């Protein structure tokens, strides 16, 4: 009791001193955008007041302003410390004591002497406060529990609340990334972070204990003293534990649980799959999965569920990549070290995507490190690759720069074939990304990508093609339920052919396509059972269809430049994911797309009732700059549903309708880098497609195995094809050479994937058919009498096996086996002689097939030792591509020699191709 009487007496004296001081103290002060410490010094210079504090309490308050005339010291200090955690107390007329968070009381709190109101906080009395909001923490320090004390908020003598709100984010200190689904123990009650790493809870006034225990992270234990509402971010360090094996599982990418099924490619695991010349290629890995294939070895582009290669939307950080491959498809044009996530949509394309019929390859780059400088590199027989990351503003922003280059000319020089001695083949690609986080709610990402290929297989021609992609994304979170992403992008693709021969026909051919895109996408979490995804997008196409210019003073080539094409494609979309019941979830979406073909341009109008030709042009219409030539569009419905039979078994169904307003012009069997893109206009209609799918998905043995079986049927209209012998390149009247018809594809896809154990990998099998029908009332515009016939990429059977066996943590053996039915071709079936010349008679289009394709690859992977204190961590890959030496045909063609038609076959790799690649990270 003597202790309390002494305290009361001291407070009484202090109260009298303050009262006397307040009557006489009137100050005139003015300060702007200065620090609190400077204002305190100013007050001390102009008055007799002296402040007592620790400098570190005031360091963060360096931008305060005020203008006071004849104000009391109390009013000045209240204004000065209004937005801080600092309280003040005046004693002995001229001494001002500052305290962080807490208050020095000038009177005893109500009920101070009551049994239930004496508040002495210890860990054993947490949560037992009954009547007073005043905070008196036990001064005794426990030697056994030396934990850091965190003070939250600023005490207010008028505040009688018994509970205050504590909120904040949980982050990884090394990466700066938020940690979702982390449980925080607060006074024995678990509080979870949301998908953004945010948490919020109510705590009692005074002392509370916070604990966080997360696998692979250091444990955190803090003493939290609540004075008022406030924020505390929990920063976790990565912990090092010696474990035999750690397997982290989450339902985020559970193939059974997902409503919109997507194919995910593990970028890191792709390094273990043996590919041509040891080059890592995530898109080549995609072709080993069901439903995704190519027209042949070395062919550009991908065929997804019986669709043409131009029906795939390939995005890199939201910017379109028109040609994602180097050197006729042998190498990927995308740096694997820079990629973070690779998602492929092929059964149900979300409503946020549009403009292509078959699939979306959504590739995103990883964020640059904001904490430390690091890098990754590889050296192979024909390519070198390096990627560097560095912080710009530590903890907030980082820059990533990567580049690849090919040095394959030494291989061509070493070949015995004399005709290839002067050949060259080289490429490079460069990628850069800058990411900056302004706050927990705001982040920008800027990505730039360029690539270039130069190749000359003959001594008189040089082929050059380039990609460019630029994107800027701003992600903003309004609150825990509402977020937005605004993206701007620009993509360009062009090629150039230079011919310098022995005759006077030297020329330079050029082509380019450019698109500018803007897209606003918003996501809204209405509640735990309903989510919305909505937005708008628009893109402007500018196409230079081609030009030819003579080179040299003696060239007789006539200059020609086709009219520029322009088009505006816009869309609005809305999608929702609704949990109808615990087991049944429906994802519905609608996208309304509109395409306007724009002038300046001229368009031909043809006579009705006769085939299109130069002779049947009725008139030519000229359109002014930005005048609308033709408008196409309509609704695109996207629906998918998932029903859980149990937690490891589900049934999924989907329906998908899409429009495509741009086509490639090529009458080759396989895609080449000099194919041109053509916009829909007055005479060429947009393609459209409807796809139905139904599948069963199963997980077994705690997700050690994934099993899926899915069937699909797709019907398309206005599929672009060409008349036999059509002239495509630099044709001013291309509509006279094209045909548009119906497409039909169907199939069944099977996938068995093993994800755990020393042996892991997958088996994939697809049975699918792809047909096209080009019928017309005019015989000249019919192909195969107007019947359905196999498309150029129709391959009924496609089997792949990718397996990896880990002998130890450092050594593993990888295998890759592929079998495919040979693609369709058109063969000569006879010949005749007319006017002294021999002519071939060909079969119906795509009636025959080239030989079946199969290939076995082997790779041996050697990891460096796993010591922590190393300058770099290495990884060796020794591989043999086409171990069996199978002479798989790339194409079959025919020549006439001595009056006889001879069939010839070209192959890319007809012998085993060994390679060794060294990778290292630092």
TrEMBL record:
SUPFAM superfamilies membership: Carboxypeptidase regulatory domain-like (SSF49464), Porins (SSF56935)
Membrane topology summary: Multi-pass membrane protein
One GO BP annotation of this record: siderophore transmembrane transport
GO CC annotation, single: cell outer membrane
Coiled coil: none
Any one GO MF annotation of this record: siderophore uptake transmembrane transporter activity
Record InterPro entries: Beta-barrel_TonB_sf, CarboxyPept-like_regulatory, Plug_dom, Plug_dom_sf, TonB-dep_rcpt-like
Any Pfam family hit: Plug
Keyword Magnesium: no
Main localization, broad class: membrane
Gene3D superfamilies per the UniProt record, alphabetical: TonB-dependent receptor, beta-barrel domain, TonB-dependent receptor, plug domain
Record keywords: Cell outer membrane, Membrane, Receptor, Signal, Transmembrane, Transmembrane beta strand, Transport
Organism domain of life: Bacteria
Domain TonB-dependent receptor plug: 268-356
Localization (cell): Cell outer membrane
Family, as annotated: Belongs to the TonB-dependent receptor family.
Protein name: TonB-dependent receptor
